[in-house]
Design goal:
The complex is a heterodimer of chains A (428) and B (235). Chain A has 428 residues and is of the alpha+beta class. Chain A has helices spanning 2-11, 17-53, 61-65, 79-89, 134-137, 140-143, 160-165, 212-219, 239-253, 272-310, 312-320, 325-361, 366-369, 396-416, 422-427, and strands at residues 56-60, 93-108, 114-125, 144-147, 155-159, 173-179, 185-196, 207-211, 227-232, 262-266, 363-364, 382-383. In chain A, helix 2 (17-53) runs parallel beside helix 12, helix 10 (272-310) runs parallel beside helix 14 (396-416) and helix 12 (325-361) packs antiparallel against helix 14 (396-416). Chain B is built from seven helices and ten strands. Chain B has helices spanning 49-56, 79-89, 105-115, 120-134, 149-161, 179-196, 207-210; strands at residues 5-18, 21-34, 38-42, 64-69, 72-73, 90-94, 167-171, 199-204, 215-220, 223-229. Chain B is globular.
Chain lengths: 428, 235
């Protein structure tokens, strides 16, 4: 009987091909839409994480309290060992030191006299270490406007906006004027080797990027760092996991009585705005994703229902010929399962491919979002989709469950069918 | 089976609820049909022909009286028991053929054998034989939409007979056919009735059929008003 039904299923396009196409399209849309929404939201988190907070970051308790002041005198010490321990304890993350420091950038003329001068926010990031993923995270190759990426600790990148403001050209010497971590006055000369544009609104207005070794030299911060940023290896922010990790770390490593003991802060706790944003995003994804899922579930439920009703005559004939109601009902369900699984597998595959494409290449919205970035939250200009584990199975909810439930519902008619009317119905 | 009785009905009453009342479709019907009979239930619309056919086929149950089909009482039987009885011992022919459009002639005829779990080699043999009975050898791989009305009904006949049932029930089998095809169909059915000794029960008011019947039972308002066996010389 299975072979007989399979033959019918393959030949009757309205029972097989068309439902499979509808399920495939629907599941593809579900997968891509959810992947794109999650990816888009993750991009917002990731850009904020790269520039401001990491998915998690470790600082001293004292630094946390004064973080707005960039108090490097309260920086973490013995950073290499802390990073070794973090890598060991949280292997699904990578950890990178960061020195964030402010000061003045002085641009001398050929006589050594100040030509231009302005405030600068400098980031000492791990650029030179070949295992570092900072170049990838900062998308330096894409964001470089002129010049090249620094190759030594004395070389810096200046944001295009700051370079324009201070008339900086590549090859210029830029003198950083500020204070060391011991609160001593310092001046340090850097060679400008390139300019960059993060294309994230005003986020890089006064920004200078330098390798952390250069920042350490300039600020006398040997084996010290303002913060240690942590990112998941997949770069996908999982809020619950971030909170769990930070709680776990703080319970085992942080001493509330020691202001210099390390404390881990999850992205959502990096600022009040960020916490609200994370909650809003979660609620948004839940509502939009849920509503979307319900709509497509109803569509596919209805398709299963209609498909069952359309074959009223065939089922009547089979009942008249002596097939039991249970057997007819079960054959409907098996067909719905086959169609549902086939459509869902195709839909999930195509949806994942589309999502992967947009994950790799993104969709550029730079014009739209350039005005939306704030100091505590950075808006991305290119939205990338994100393949998350749930995308591998979420399509089965509308694709299989809804289709089968619709079929089951229409199949109830088989049990309610008045057998005494079969002759009349089959003559119709 | 008790002697050669295929159907034994005593004091059959069938009532249908209509509004708050009951409509009596069959009134104290007594009937015996024997193996090999070629019987017509004749009567105007509403006379109870199809209701009687339904009850004989186990598609409906009696309100009163006893119905035995193939020596098996249909009183208090489950749906599955009646389905099994139909599957094994009965065949059905419908006015509008009810062939499954996506299957070929061969496959449509094969269905009752699949339902009866006959092995494939045996199925092929029996389907080919049934196709020969109805003269559709050159159409075995055709789909129903490529067949004429007469060919469709011949396929339906082969489907009803392929598992060699004891009893075949036909509801207006020639109503959709022209005169020539109707006679062809009836000639095939008569031949198979003689060769296979299968009992046939027709519900019809088609005059063209009458001449082929060996027994005519006239129904009117739920009563059998005449039960006449036709002698060969009459035919």
């Amino acid at each position: 009987m299975i072979q007989f039904l399979t033959k019918g299923l393959l030949r009757d396009r309205s029972r097989s091909l068309f439902p499979v196409i509808i399920i495939t399209i629907t599941v593809t849309i579900v997968i891509f839409a959810i992947g794109f929404m999650k990816g888009g939201m993750n991009n917002v988190f990731l850009d904020t994480a790269v520039i401001i907070s990491g998915h998690e970051k470790v600082v001293t308790r004292a630094y946390k309290e004064e973080s707005q002041m960039l108090p490097n005198d309260l920086a973490l010490l013995d950073v290499d060992q802390i990073i070794v321990n973090l890598n060991k304890e949280y292997p699904d993350h990578f950890w990178s030191p960061r020195i964030t420091f402010g000061g003045l950038l002085d641009m001398p003329d050929s006589n050594g006299e100040t030509k231009d001068q302005g405030p600068v926010i400098a980031m000492g990031i791990d650029l030179l270490n070949k295992n570092s993923r900072m170049k990838e995270l900062w998308e330096l190759e894409n964001n470089l406007v002129n010049g090249r990426i620094p190759k030594t600790s004395e070389e810096v990148l200046i944001s295009e906006k700051l370079a324009n403001k201070l008339n900086i050209t590549i090859g210029d010497i830029a003198t950083y004027i500020g204070t060391t971590m011991h609160n001593a006055f310092t001046t340090y000369n850097f060679l400008v080797v390139g300019t960059f544009d993060l294309r994230k609104g005003q986020a890089d207005k006064q920004m200078m990027l330098v390798d952390i070794s250069g920042a350490r030299k300039a600020l006398d911060m040997e084996n010290a760092a303002s913060e240690i940023f942590g990112f998941t290896n997949s770069l996908f922010y999982n809020d619950k996991k971030a909170i769990d990790i930070s709680n776990d770390y703080n319970n085992s490593h942080s001493d509330t009585s020691d202001i210099f003991s390390p404390v881990m802060i999850a992205l959502r706790n990096s600022s009040q705005q960020m916490g609200t944003m994370v909650d809003m995003v979660d609620a948004f994804l839940l509502i939009i994703g849920g509503v979307f899922l319900i709509i497509v579930t109803i569509v596919l439920w209805n398709m299963g229902l209609m498909n069952g009703l359309r074959r009223h005559g065939e089922f009547g004939l089979r009942l008249a010929m002596g097939e039991s109601k249970g057997d007819v009902y079960r054959s409907m369900i098996v067909e719905a399962l086959i169609v549902g699984f086939t459509g869902t597998i195709f839909g999930t595959s195509i949806g994942l491919m589309l999502t992967y494409y947009v994950q790799e290449y993104g969709i550029d919205y730079s014009e739209v979002v350039s005005t939306m970035s704030t100091s505590s939250m950075v808006m991305p200009n290119i939205f990338y989709a994100q393949i998350t584990p749930d995308l591998y199975y979420i399509g089965f909810i509308p694709g299989v469950i809804a289709t089968v439930l619709g079929t089951m519902l229409s199949g109830v008619a088989i049990y309610k069918r008045e057998m005494a009317q079969l002759f009349k119905e089959l003559e119709a | 089976m008790e002697s050669n009785t295929v159907i034994s009905i005593q004091n059959l009453v069938k009532r249908f609820p209509v509004g708050g009342d009951f409509f009596t479709a069959l009134k104290n019907v007594d009937l015996k049909l024997h193996k090999g009979e070629f019987t017509g239930l004749i009567g105007p619309s509403g006379s109870g022909k199809t209701t009687l056919l339904n009850i004989i086929g186990g598609l409906d149950s009696a309100s009163e009286g006893t119905v035995r089909v193939l020596d098996q009482s249909l009183d208090n039987t489950t749906h599955n028991e009646r389905a099994k009885l139909r599957r094994k011992y009965m065949g059905f022919i419908f006015q509008s053929y009810n062939l499954l459009p996506v299957y070929t002639v061969f496959e449509n005829i094969e269905l009752p054998l699949i339902l009866n779990k006959i092995d494939q080699a045996n199925r092929i043999k029996r389907v080919n034989q049934a196709i020969e009975w109805v003269g559709l050898t050159n159409k075995r791989n055709s789909k129903p939409n490529m067949l004429s009305g007469g060919e469709c009904q011949r396929t339906a006949i082969a489907r009803a007979l392929v598992h060699e049932p004891v009893l075949v029930m036909a509801d207006e089998p020639t109503a959709n056919l022209d005169a020539e095809n109707s006679h062809n169909i009836m000639r095939i059915l008569t031949k198979l009735n003689n060769e296979l000794d299968t009992s046939f029960v027709f519900a019809t008011h088609d005059e063209k059929i009458m001449g082929y019947l060996k027994r005519i039972i006239r129904l009117e308002d739920g009563n059998i008003i005449n039960d006449k066996k036709i002698k060969k010389e009459d035919v």
